[in-house]
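Table S2 (continued). Query chain:
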Amino acid sequence: MCAWMRSGKLYLLFSLLFACSTVFLPAFANQKLITLVDKASIDLASIDPASTDSISSGSTSPNPSTILKAENGLQTLLINDQPQAVYIQGDDFSKPILLVLHGGPGFAMMPLLHQTNAELEKHFIVVNWDQRGAGLSFDISISEESLSLAQLVDDAHVLTSALKQTFQRDKIYLLAHSFGTVIAMYLLEQQPSDYYAYAGVGQIVSVVENEQLSYDFALEQAQSNAHVQAINELVAVGRSNEDGEYLDDAGYEVTAKWMAFFGGELVGKTDTGTIEETILSHHPYLNQQNKWLQGWQLSQALFYDDQVWEFDFRTDIPSVEVPIYFLMGRYDQAAPVTLVTDYYRLLHAPDKRLTWFEHSAHFPFYEQSDLFNRTLIQLFRQHVSY
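Corresponding output:
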């Protein structure tokens, strides 16, 4: 568990949970080509003839139409032999594709952009993907041992290839948030020709330093506000070491709780409860809260992957071949802004920009949604004709 994945307030979700609802996927079935595509609800099955082949990185031409379920823009695809959910929204399927990588790990947020950033759907085919084991991609058969950063990167690459083939595109756009930015950076490094441009929100640079700086912020705020409980709890767990470890694993949750309490995730808020309520009270997560929480819990197994703790993009990926844009909340302490500033200064890219949202922390697309929409559209539209 890590401070920047909002563990501090997830206990609030338990009051929202209903009895577990299991999604039963129908057997594989060839589906006929459907020419009608509903506005704001695009089905992959309606664009490409279906196949019973699994989408996998081993396929020379991955077919994205292995559809286990398709309803109201929600697709269940077999990616690398694992059913995974994608949510496709857009007013016009001739527009460019925007693939969204959520954070966490396990903080799946399919409804959030649709509720707060619907303007993007006028300019892009917006594809939200619940990563392996997260959200509606959770399955009880998925073992903790099977989850790794490398696996998520490969799944994302396969999904990218599938979207390109289905919509007959040479490239797509990439938008990532928090932990999703880690996946995104490896995609840019390994498959730069797949992407027109990338926007990172709450960009992660180094998990170890991220944890330390989040702790430093929380303790400083606790001391300056003379908050005795916060001071006592933070001092008790101490600062994480050079490996990102606390003396007690409770340190991750303590740091996350107080970092959020002092506005490090949402400006003027002590937690992210409003975001979680929005996510869990709308389609397609409505009545799936228990599954969402199970996916979040399973996804924490990614922190057993050494790669998550060892990377530092300042040394590991000092250059990319794709235009890259960091869209950062000025008060973000879940992804401390000093790390992003350091990385931006040394990063080499065909085009790069660091844009600050002056009234936001970790969620500028939620906190300043209109400005975020305008900024992203303006940055991306220069790379392809709309």
